[in-house]
Amino acid sequence: MPDNDVIIWARPERPARGKAPAYSRDQIAAAAVRIADADGLEAVTMRRVAAEIGAGAMSLYRYVRNKDELHMLMADVVLPDTLGEPPADWREALREYARGVRRIVHAHPWFPVVSAEVQVPGPNMMRGLEWLMSTVDGLGLDIDGMMEVAFTVQILAIGFAQNEIAEARALARSGLTREQWQAQQGPYVEAVINSGEFPYFTRIVHDARIPHEVEGEVFDRALDRVLNGIAATLPRGTRR
């Protein structure tokens, strides 16, 4: 197979002969991550990354051939390179996993987009996949069922974190505290309630706890609901 067709993970990072590369893949990925965290994924260009590590723009192509490969490195480097044994209880293991995904997305809001683009996982992503799948093995599911359970939890964690990030950004753009923002919306909300046309919205305003709770508590309860739903679909004898 021509070298041009070999995926980055299958290419040796160091040549068998000749001079050692001046930069490692981890250094390049870390530079791209810093840029994405600070200025967004759109700011990550080959030229910008090269400048970040002090290399010439064209020289970076000796390490990564295009932005797709750069994204593959980014998605992998932010994941843990070592994982402990998962908890024996599958529910607790999936809770641990979901909380970890939520933390990663909060730290790197671009991660869901980049990781979704990755067609072939890198070493850290592969280790994470093995860890995750091992937590749902033994529940009486075939491999497709195991994937559905694992990715349902993953999608919940990603979506929840993205919603939290979007709300925080909107509040930051307003220049108001949460209390000031709520007070500003007060007259409109009162008018909606007084119209009598939106009874469920009225109940949310008057009775719901969620808008006033700590986000982590809401996430944990939502996660438990999902885990309870998963448990209800497991074959008899494996539901716990």
Automatic annotation (TrEMBL):
Q: Name one GO biological process term.
A: negative regulation of DNA-templated transcription
- Say yes or no: keyword Glycoprotein present: no
The root-end lineage is: Bacteria, Bacillati, Actinomycetota, Actinomycetes, Pseudonocardiales
Q: What is this protein called?
A: TetR family transcriptional regulator
GO molecular-function terms, A-Z = DNA-binding transcription factor activity; transcription cis-regulatory region binding
Quote the DNA-binding region ranges, renumbered to this chain.
45-64
Domain HTH tetR-type, by residue range, is 22-82
Keyword list (alphabetical) reads: DNA-binding, Transcription, Transcription regulation
Q: Keyword Isomerase on this protein? A: no
Which superkingdom? Bacteria
Q: Which InterPro entries match?
A: Homeodomain-like_sf (IPR009057), HTH-type_TetR-like_transc_reg (IPR050109), HTH_TetR (IPR001647), Repressor_TetR_C (IPR004111), Tet_transcr_reg_TetR-rel_C_sf (IPR036271)
